[in-house]
């Protein structure tokens, strides 16, 4: 009698379990995707940048630990969401930000961006951007003071403001410079595309290298952690809008390439706007969401008072997510059909 071969199809009672994406695995994938851009930030801005990242992560994890019940702390801290929020926040900050401000920003990101809404999966706004918005509104000078990239030979040279005492005005070196967005907005001077592409320019410590941020985004897409509709719709809308403005007055308005590779465009479009908790559910809603961000970021950059607009664009569209979901949800089968 022949032995029965292993069946190709197993039929068993519910629940039918499959090994799919979990919160910790998704968080790890984002960490891996951000690793090249993070290392580039440390390469260009040195030890101060590393300390800013660690301070943001420490502040975020501390608040998560304090406000999580003791029996749930292992799960809450183990999923890595708080640490990832701290990392994302740190990547949007100037490398010379005082450490106490970075730590406070991490606390606010989790406290006001996540805990107050009921924890992971319930927040309306992206927590990292909540922390950045708080820091920008509270410490505008520190948040808009930039330093040129200095290279690995100066890795251990700390900025004078790094260890500024809490609640005291930080001291700034004479080597401060304007970011590419600031130079474009206030002086109408465009930076070299290669510097924006590689990351050898002034700016937030994790936003400077468009190349590495894109490579990380492709990794997330390949891992199926990222829906392409949001970043693609952001890039297409922002590119077309900036192209129209550039054709109207090329001396005043930036080119599409500058728009796409400067500031927080890449980091925001790929790693923050795609947050599944704060973005719409349906494919149509994702396209509307991304189109709105792309339009708003160019509108704010060009006609607003600040050079950057990515943070505000994402937060505004986060607030519109429930409305987008309401009008883009697929119709329930049978509902709205008259009986014969």
TrEMBL record:
**Entry's localization field:** Cell inner membrane
| Membrane-topology annotation of the record | Multi-pass membrane protein
Alphabetical list of HAMAP family matching this protein: RsxD_RnfD (MF_00462)
Question: Per the similarity annotation, which family is this?
Answer: Belongs to the NqrB/RnfD family.
In which organism is this protein found? endosymbiont of Riftia pachyptila (vent Ph05)
Know the name of this protein? Ion-translocating oxidoreductase complex subunit D
Q: Which InterPro entries match?
A: NqrB/RnfD, RnfD_bac
**Pfam families recorded for this chain?**
NQR2_RnfD_RnfE (PF03116)
A biological-process GO annotation: transmembrane transport
Instruction: List, separated by semicolons, the cofactors it needs.
Output: FMN
- Major enzyme class: translocase
Q: What is the annotated quaternary arrangement, including any partners?
A: The complex is composed of six subunits: RnfA, RnfB, RnfC, RnfD, RnfE and RnfG.
Enumerate the transmembrane spans. 30-63, 99-117, 129-149, 193-222, 228-248, 255-274, 286-304
Q: Does the keyword Membrane apply?
A: yes
Q: Which domain of life is it from?
A: Bacteria
């Amino acid at each position: 009698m022949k032995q029965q071969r292993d069946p190709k199809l197993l039929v068993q009672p519910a629940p039918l379990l499959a090994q799919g994406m979990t919160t910790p695995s998704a968080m790890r994938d984002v960490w891996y995707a951000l690793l090249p851009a993070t290392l580039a930030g440390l390469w260009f801005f040195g030890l101060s940048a590393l300390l800013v990242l660690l301070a943001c992560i420490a502040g975020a994890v501390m608040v998560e630990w304090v406000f999580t019940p003791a029996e749930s702390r292992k799960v809450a801290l183990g999923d890595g969401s708080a640490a990832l929020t701290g990392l994302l926040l740190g990547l949007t900050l100037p490398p010379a930000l005082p450490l106490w401000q970075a730590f406070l920003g991490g606390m606010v990101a989790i406290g006001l961006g996540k805990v107050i809404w009921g924890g992971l999966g319930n927040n309306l706004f992206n927590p990292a951007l909540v922390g950045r918005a708080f820091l920008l509104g509270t410490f505008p000078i520190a948040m808009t003071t930039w330093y040129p990239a200095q290279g690995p030979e100066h890795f251990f040279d700390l900025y004078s403001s790094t260890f500024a005492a809490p609640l005291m005005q930080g001291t700034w070196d004479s080597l401060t410079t304007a970011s590419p967005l600031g130079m474009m907005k206030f002086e109408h001077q465009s930076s070299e595309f290669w510097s924006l592409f590689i990351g050898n320019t002034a700016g937030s410590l994790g936003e400077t290298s468009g190349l590495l941020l894109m490579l990380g985004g492709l990794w997330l897409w390949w891992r199926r952690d990222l829906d392409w509709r949001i970043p693609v719709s952001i890039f297409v809308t922002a590119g077309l809008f900036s192209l129209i403005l550039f054709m109207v007055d090329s001396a005043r308005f930036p080119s599409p390439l500058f728009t796409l590779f400067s500031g927080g465009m890449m980091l925001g479009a790929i790693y923050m706007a795609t947050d599944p908790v704060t973005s719409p559910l349906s494919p149509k809603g994702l396209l509307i969401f991304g189109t709105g961000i792309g339009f708003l970021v160019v509108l704010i950059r060009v006609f607003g008072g600040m050079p950057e607009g990515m943070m505000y664009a994402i937060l505004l569209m986060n607030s519109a997510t429930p409305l987008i979901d309401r009008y883009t949800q697929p119709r329930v089968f049978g509902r709205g059909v008259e009986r014969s």
